[in-house]
Amino acid sequence: MSTLIKGGTVVTAGDTFAADVLVEGEQIVAIGRGLSGDTVIDADGAYVIPGGIDVHTHLDMPFGGTVSSDNFFTGHQAAAFGGTTMHIDFAIQPKGATLRETLELWHGRAAGKAAIDYGFHVAITDLPDSVLNEMQDCVGYGATSMKLFMAYKGVLQVDDSTLFRAMQQAAQHRLLIMVHAENGDAIDILVREAVAAGNLAPKYHALTRPPQLESEATNRAIRLAEVAGAPLYVVHVTNAEAMEAIRQSRARGYGGQIFGETCTQYLFFTKADLDRDGFEGAKWVCSPPFREASDHDQLWGAVADNALQVISTDHCPFWFAGGVDGRTPGKELGRNSFAQIPNGCPGIEERLMLLYTHGVRAGRISLNRWVELCCTNPAKLFGCYPRKGVVAPGADADLVVWDPEARRTLSAATQHQRTDYTLYEGWEVVGAPRTVLSRGRVLVNDGAWHGEAGAGQFIHRRPFGL
Ligand code: URP
Ligand code: ZN
Ligand code: ZN
Prior knowledge:
Layout: E1 2-11, E2 16-24, E3 27-32, E4 39-42, E5 47-50, E6 52-57, E7 62-63, E8 66-67, H1 74-81, E9 84-92, H2 99-110, E10 117-124, H3 129-134, H4 138-141, E11 145-149, H5 160-173, E12 176-180, H6 184-196, H7 203-207, H8 211-228, E13 232-234, H9 240-254, E14 258-263, H10 293-305, E15 310-312, H11 351-360, H12 367-381, E16 399-409, E17 428-438, E18 441-445, E19 448-449
Parallel strand pairs: 1-4, 1-5, 6-9, 9-10, 10-11, 11-12, 12-13, 13-14, 14-15
Antiparallel strand pairs: 1-2, 2-3, 5-16, 7-8, 16-17, 17-18, 18-19
């Protein structure tokens, strides 16, 4: 059985051209004019782009005294409705566990649920020699990137010697090190001081995690990676100073080795959002926190001129009013103190629509750069290109027929993310997916779900740069 996506404009990171796309089985087999297929999907007036890849998500993750509210089915549905057909989640190492055991735990979470393709980064929290030596086995496990947290003291944070040893090992085995770059020791002191002073409202989350503590840690991680010779990817960059540290390292000659992402939400919100009426600001509590409006322009500039290479979501949803009707506890855990609010925000569904509306249509990034940031660079950096991230013969038929004129109003009432709020309530977007395919199967068409739990596959990723 073949499927022809007919009459659209194909958009890749490098090109924009009118062509039909022929899919046989799970793959694209031809791109051209005058092709025929058994089933025809009309792409008239639409773009045909590679499925989005979100390399930073936390589905079904135990965190902050609860569990993130989307699992590997609901999160996948939400992703697909927004045009994302692959994501890479973080398998967090329980202290004392091997990396294999860690990955098995997370494979168990996805088993029977996955509706889109997925991969895992390993988040290392504990690095005895046995685990250090096991890092090389991650090539065989197909999980070739590792995150280390420089913050969340006493929970996930590692010290510099752990980080540096991991980097040395990664350099030898072409593993990509990812860092959550904030100075967790200093933050821990500021949080304790705020709590002792009775400063407990959500806004103190941002005030106890100032941008200097992100840029300091970013610069430290970069310098350690330069010395270790390890490839480094800085996740969720929020502000101009941290971004400049990445830009400068790349200018010093580490351009093939030092990379950074920002996340959709850091292009739109500020620390003032944490000071909304009552407890409302808790919805905006994530780490690192939101910064200043001036950072938005700098981040848009950085994603346009390649100082940053990827925009992901850090999708880590919690209920606002959890703990009832089968809902896991959520943001309300921190009603009495910002220090207890689970950190994280939803966003896997909205990324492509927001970046198309406020990036492409607003003239901040080109159509091709949008595809590069959201689809192609994630696949290239994380070892699954050209199977993923491109519209080309031989690639998986993970495709989105994108209607550039479709209008949607983002709302908790209509979203597919399993939570009771969206950061973008009432926002209008122009441009949305019409049809979404994963390896040739239609997942979403005209707003209706056709996907299936269990159809998503684990994607075994190659080492960095291979
Ligand atoms: O607040 C956030 N970002 N929660 C998820 C964990 C992380 O730091 O990425
Ligand atoms: Zn993080
Ligand atoms: Zn994260």
